[in-house]
Write a structure and sequence with these properties.
The structure holds 2 protein chains of 2 kinds.
Chain A: H1 5-16, H2 23-49, H3 56-81, H4 89-106, H5 110-134, H6 140-158, E1 165-166, H7 170-177, E2 179-180, E3 183-184, H8 185-203, H9 205-215, H10 217-222, H11 227-253, E4 255-256, H12 264-274, H13 286-305, H14 310-345
Antiparallel strand pairs in A: 1-4, 2-3
Helix pairs in contact in A: 2-13, 2-14, 3-8, 3-11, 3-12, 3-13, 4-5, 4-6, 4-11, 5-6, 5-11, 7-11, 8-9, 9-11, 12-13
Chain B: E1 10-19, E2 22-32, E3 36-41, H1 48-55, E4 63-68, E5 71-73, H2 78-83, E6 86-89, H3 101-106, E7 112-113, E8 123-124, H4 126-139, H5 156-170, E9 174-178, H6 186-201, E10 205-209, H7 213-219, E11 222-227, E12 230-235, H8 242-250
Parallel strand pairs in B: 3-10, 3-11, 6-9, 9-10
Antiparallel strand pairs in B: 1-2, 1-4, 4-5, 7-8, 11-12
The chains are: A mainly alpha, B alpha/beta.
């Protein structure tokens, strides 16, 4: 393949910046801590622009508003680690709140309502994973898109014309909406879910297998890893996280609604990518999803405080996603350069 | 070479393999001994890769048997091949770019606890795996830039060295290397050849597929030549019979 001369010139110029080998590790390190750095810079910037930003009340607001995105983004992150995507999380969450609401009409039991929401979320996830893997689909995009439509339709059907169904057991409204010592309870739930996810991803064999399947699915099969079970499990966990998100949101609003979780799939995918995980699979710490979710929450909150139009917020979020994906591309380019440098150093 | 190779550690007897109308292996028998490098030679399509894939559990044999240390074994999957002590380093590496060398070593057979849980639910012994992998890397004199970095950051030669080293950790009987230097430069190839010498010194039976006659003459204790699915020759390769070896490979009269 002959490269166009102009392209070759452009490429060599682009590499010139990283010609010195010592720059590459530095640049890679900057890229890896970039999201946290940007989050800190944003916090400083917003606190200078609007004095209300750093007040405890407002920080509590951010935590409460971010909790649902953060929890669902952790599930989404596990799916993206295996090179997949779960577009159904928002609709899945809505369906779970509606089913929880229906259970609450018949039984005034917080435990039963919560179980119903968790089961509903996990079941949808299981269907996603099983159809994807055993239906031999090339990509989970289609099945989770179909599942989005089915769940949303089912939620609207089950709610029988209501857009909101009022009422939730007190335990659930306490978990989702109340605070302890001024700290929103939802924040504790986020921390527990994060802790469990980190434990699974970093300390357990199953987590290692998730990373392996994302890194090289063919090799994973050859090494005897149960690839199908690993894939299905990530969708079940993603669904379970949507169920936990349903408890949080239903608790905060003391209601359920078939309209909840609209575009939540977008927010969670954005959180994972902004946080610094890779679409190419097998890359990224659970903390990335958390950082990304907080960043989305902070940007929305600050732009609200600054009276920036809500439409502009959507544009800003879109631009940030593009930047994050470009950073991922740059990282891969730098890693390829690092390989070349290594080869030239081998004696 | 060992003094008196008592019995072959691996023997393939009367192997037959068809792919539809193609008769890929026609009554092929080979033997491999501990402490010996066996070169498997042949032109493209001669059946080298097919034979190796049958030994390493990717394809089943139509007829014939595989004997390990005197026992007839059924190798139905790559995992089964590894369980009986046969490790294969494939041409396309099969490394996990996103994992560190130690994580690559133990992927699919992690050291974990507690034993009463199913493997997937156990907790990783990261330090034990790091230490053991580091010891192997040290023993094989592989130089890596960073031990805790993903292998994506390492050169082709370093990655191949990791793949070979991984095979040595678990190989108890046979290591198969399918064109291990095909994608490497001269200096990086040298590193991998050094590793092969070490593998042999440690008492493994090494089966080496390569197109590089220089490497064959330098390393191989014995060479088996396949042509169109048939074994057409077996000899100890050296400078004097290099021409004859090449003639056997391409099917020309000397």
């Amino acid at each position: 393949m002959a490269e166009q001369p102009e392209m070759a010139v452009l490429r060599s110029r682009g590499d010139g910046l990283f010609a010195r080998a010592s720059v590459i590790p530095l640049a890679l390190r900057l890229l890896s801590i970039g999201p946290v750095l940007i989050l800190v810079l944003l916090a400083v910037l917003f606190s200078l622009l609007t004095p209300n930003f750093l007040k405890p009340g407002n920080l509590g607001n951010i935590a409460a508003q971010t909790a649902v995105i953060a929890i669902v983004a952790i599930g989404q992150h596990l799916v993206i680690l295996t090179r997949g995507i779960d577009l159904s999380v928002g609709a899945n969450l809505a369906l779970a709140t509606v089913i929880g609401g229906l259970v609450f009409r018949s039984f005034d039991s917080a435990i039963l309502v919560m179980l119903a929401m968790l089961l509903s979320g996990s079941a949808v996830g299981a269907v996603n994973g099983l159809v994807y893997v055993f239906g031999r689909l090339p990509h989970p995009f289609i099945i989770t898109l179909a599942s989005l439509s089915i769940c949303r339709g089912l939620a609207l059907e089950l709610a029988i014309g209501h857009t909101t169904m009022r009422g939730m057991p007190e335990l659930i409204t306490t978990i989702g909406g109340a605070s302890t010592f001024g700290v929103p309870n939802s924040l504790f739930v986020v921390l527990i879910v994060t802790g469990l996810a980190v434990l699974m991803a970093k300390a357990m064999v199953w987590g290692r297998w998730i990373y392996a399947v994302g890194g090289n699915p063919q090799a994973a099969l050859g090494m005897g890893i149960p690839v199908r079970a690993v894939l299905v499990s990530t969708y079940v966990i993603s669904g379970l996280c949507a169920g936990i998100g349903a408890i949080m949101l239903a608790g905060r609003t003391a209601a359920s609604s078939p309209l909840y979780g609209n575009l939540l799939e977008l927010d969670t995918i954005a959180a994972v990518i902004i946080g610094g995980a890779s679409f190419l699979g097998g890359r990224g710490h659970i903390g990335h999803a958390l950082v990304g979710a907080v960043m989305i929450g902070v940007i929305r909150n600050a732009l609200n405080l600054l009276n920036v139009d809500v439409f502009f917020q959507m544009i800003a979020l879109g631009l940030i996603i593009v930047m994050a994906v470009e950073a991922d591309v740059l990282r891969n380019h730098l890693e390829a350069r690092a390989r070349v440098v290594q080869a030239s150093r081998t004696q | 070479m060992t003094e008196a190779p008592a019995a072959p550690v691996l023997a393939v007897r009367h192997a037959q393999k068809h792919f539809g109308a193609v008769h890929a292996l026609k009554d092929v028998s080979i033997e491999a001994y501990r402490g010996e490098v066996l070169a498997l030679l042949g032109d493209n399509g001669a059946g080298k890769s097919t034979l190796v894939k049958c030994i390493s559990g990717i394809h089943p044999l139509d007829e014939g048997e595989i004997v390990l240390d005197g026992q007839v074994v059924a190798i139905r999957s790559p995992a089964a091949a590894r369980r009986v002590g046969v490790e294969t380093v494939y041409q396309d590496l099969a490394l996990f770019d996103n994992l560190t060398p130690a994580q690559n070593f133990y992927c699919g057979r992690e050291i974990a606890f507690p034993a009463w849980l199913p493997q997937g639910l156990r907790f990783l012994r990261g330090r034990a795996m790091d230490q053991e992998a580091a010891a192997v890397i040290e023993r094989l004199k592989v130089k890596l830039p960073k031990f805790d970095a993903p292998v994506a950051l390492m050169s082709g030669g370093q990655r191949q060295a990791i793949a070979v080293a991984r095979a040595t950790v678990f190989a108890r009987k046979v290591v198969i290397l399918d064109e291990p230097t095909a994608a490497l430069g001269v200096r990086e190839s040298r590193k991998v050849l050094d590793l092969i010498v070490q593998l042999r010194a440690e008492g493994n039976a090494v089966i080496l597929i390569t197109h590089n006659m220089e490497h064959v003459i330098e390393l191989a204790d014995r060479a088996v030549v396949l042509r169109q699915g048939r074994k057409v020759g077996e000899m100890k390769p050296d400078r004097d019979n290099q021409r004859k070896l090449v003639a056997l490979i391409v099917g020309a009269e000397v």
